[in-house]
C-alpha cells in the first residue's frame, strides 16, 4: 500500500485505517454469509441486527439511554435544514436560529421558505470571529425550536457552552463535531449529523430525536419527509444506504474501543493545540480566523500574510504528503480539519511544516 496521506480534508474526511481495512475485509463476504452486505435485503436478519446495534451504539456514545430514536436518513445534513421546519414549525410559531456560520445560515434560510424563522443571535457582523455569549441570545418565547450548529466547519469555531433554551426544544447540527468531545446530549431534543466527517462515509445522516417530538404525525408533510415515518419503521421505511451505515457501525466501535468521546476530546485538544500554538507563536505570520475562546478542536482556520503565500503553502504542503488544507472556497485561507480519525502524528507533522514554511517565507 502507498503511504497514507496526512489527510486534513474537511469532508468527506479521514477514516481510521483499521476501519477501512475491516470494511474491505468484510465487503465481499459479510460475516461469513457468502454475500456482501450490499447484496442482501435490508429486511434480512443480518441487516436488521446491524441497524439495531448501530442505533444502540450511537445512543451509548452520546450518553443517552432511552427516550430518543436514532434514524438513518438520506439527503445529507442539508436535507435536515428543510425537514426540521417542515416537521416542527407549526403555524403561529417561529423557528429560532443561532446563526454562527454558513451552514447555520443555510438552515435559517431554508426555514424561512417553509414558515417563519428568526435569528436568536448571530456573529456574522464580526466575520464569525467569536461565538455569541449567553447574554447575546434572545429566544422568542413563541419558538417551536431553537436551532444551532455546535461546530462551524467552514469558519472553524465551536460552542463551548450549550445555550439554555428552557422548555423550547433545542436542535443541534453536529455534522462536524459529533463524538469529538463529551456534550450533554440531554440538552438537545434533536441532534443530527451528516456521516462524512466523524461517523463514516457520505450517504447517510444520523438523526437522534426525542420521543416527545415524534408524538404527532405532521399530515401536511409528504410521508418520506416525516420523522414519524422513519421512527415508526425503525428507520427501515425505505431502502437505507446499508454500506454507509455499516461503516458508521465500525466507526462507532472504533470510538468506543479507543476510549470513547472523553479520549477523543483529549486527543483532539492535544492535536489542535499543536497547530494553534504555532499560530500564536508566529508573531503574526499566521493569524487565526477565530478568537481563542471560540476555537474549534475539529477545524483550525488561519491566514498567511498574502494570498500568494497561501497558495504556495497549499502547493508545498501537497508535495509533503498533506491533503485538503485549502480553506473553503467562500473564505479562502487555510483550514486543517483534524477529525477524530486524524492521528496526532499528522498534526505534529503539519505543525513542523508550518514552522519550517515560516522560516523560509517569513
Ligand atoms: N452542516 C454542517 C455543520 C456541515 O459541516 C455540513 C457539511 O460540511 C453540512 C451541514 C452539509 O452536509 P451535507 O453535505 O451532508 O448536506
From TrEMBL:
Q: Which organism is it from?
A: Paenibacillus ehimensis
Chief place of localization: cytoplasm
For whether the record's keyword set contains Disulfide bond, the answer is no
Q: Where in the cell is it found?
A: Cytoplasm
Q: Which residues form the Aminotransferase class V domain?
A: 6-341
Q: Which UniProt keywords apply?
A: Amino-acid biosynthesis, Aminotransferase, Cytoplasm, Pyridoxal phosphate, Serine biosynthesis, Transferase
Give one GO term, molecular function aspect.
O-phospho-L-serine:2-oxoglutarate aminotransferase activity
What does the cofactor section's free text say about binding? Binds 1 pyridoxal phosphate per subunit.
One Pfam family assigned to this protein is Aminotran_5
| Key word Acetylation present | no
Q: What class of enzyme is it?
A: transferase
| Encoding gene (name) | serC
**Binding site residues for pyridoxal 5'-phosphate:** 77-78, 103, 153, 173, 196, 238-239
Q: Which reaction does it catalyse?
A: O-phospho-L-serine + 2-oxoglutarate = 3-phosphooxypyruvate + L-glutamate; 4-(phosphooxy)-L-threonine + 2-oxoglutarate = (R)-3-hydroxy-2-oxo-4-phosphooxybutanoate + L-glutamate
Q: Which residues bind L-glutamate?
A: 43
Would you identify the family this protein belongs to, as annotated? Answer: Belongs to the class-V pyridoxal-phosphate-dependent aminotransferase family. SerC subfamily.
Pathway it acts in? Answer: Amino-acid biosynthesis; L-serine biosynthesis; L-serine from 3-phospho-D-glycerate: step 2/3
Which InterPro entries does the record associate with it? Aminotrans_V_dom, Pser_aminoTfrase, PyrdxlP-dep_Trfase, PyrdxlP-dep_Trfase_major, PyrdxlP-dep_Trfase_small
Needs which cofactor? Answer: pyridoxal 5'-phosphate
EC numbers listed for it are: 2.6.1.52
Partners and quaternary state? Homodimer.
Q: What does this protein do?
A: Catalyzes the reversible conversion of 3-phosphohydroxypyruvate to phosphoserine and of 3-hydroxy-2-oxo-4-phosphonooxybutanoate to phosphohydroxythreonine.
Point out residues bearing the modification N6-(pyridoxal phosphate)lysine. 197
Q: What is this protein's record name?
A: Phosphoserine aminotransferase
